[in-house]
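RECORD TYPE: protein structure
NAME: DUF4294 domain-containing protein
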Amino acid sequence: MRKLVSLFFVLIGVFGFSQTEKKIKKDSSYIYKDYIIFEGDTVVIELDEVAVLNKVKFKNDYDKRYYYWFRKKTIKAYPFAKLAAERLTTLNERLDNIDSKRKKKLYTKRVQKYMEEEFTEQLKKLTRTEGRILIKLIHRQTGVTTFDLIKEIRSGWKAFWYHKTASLFKLSLKLEYNPELIDEDFMIEDILQRAFMNGTLEKQVSKLDFDYMNIAAKRGNLIHVQKK
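PREDICTED:
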C-alpha cells in the first residue's frame, strides 16, 4: 500500500420542511410558518429550519448489510478528503501571494511533507475500498479529480505515473463523484448527510453542483448495491 499512500500526499430521505400554515395556541402566542407571533405585540422570532431525513430503504438484506459495512468505510475516508480540501484552499491562497515560481514550488513541497509526516501511518491502513471512496470524496470536496489535482500541482507526467501506479491496485485517480447517476455515490452521499446530521462527521460543503434532496426524492431513499 506504500505506493498507493503516496498518491494522496500530493494533494495536500429527503429533507422534510413543513410548508403548511399551522397555529399552535400557547401563552398568548402562536406559530405561523417559520415564525413565533406574540399576540398584542410586534415581536417576531424566526425559527431555525429543522431537517429530517426519511428512513433509508433497502431491496434486500444483502443491501442492508452492505450499506452498514460501507458506512464504516466512508466515515473513515471522509476526514482525509475534508483535510485535502482544506489544505488545497490554504495552498492556493498562499500561492496567490507568492510571486516567485521557485518559492511556490518550495512551499508546495513543504505542505506535502507536512501531510506525509502527519498522516502516513493512517493512510497506510486504508483498504482498496476506502481508497476508492477517498478518491471520489476528494472530487466531492475539491471539485477536481485526484488526477487533475496532481496534474495541476505537480505535472502531467507525475499525474500519469501516479495514475498508472493506482491502476495496479485496481483504482483510478480519474474517478468522479456523481450521486445522481452512480448508485455507490448516492450511498456515500446518503451516509454523509446522516452523519452530518447526527454529529458523527463535521460538515464541509461539496464543491460539486448537486441536490441531495431532489436525488433522494427521485430514488425514494432506496439504496441499491451492485454486486461485483
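COMMENT: The chain has a mean pLDDT of 75.
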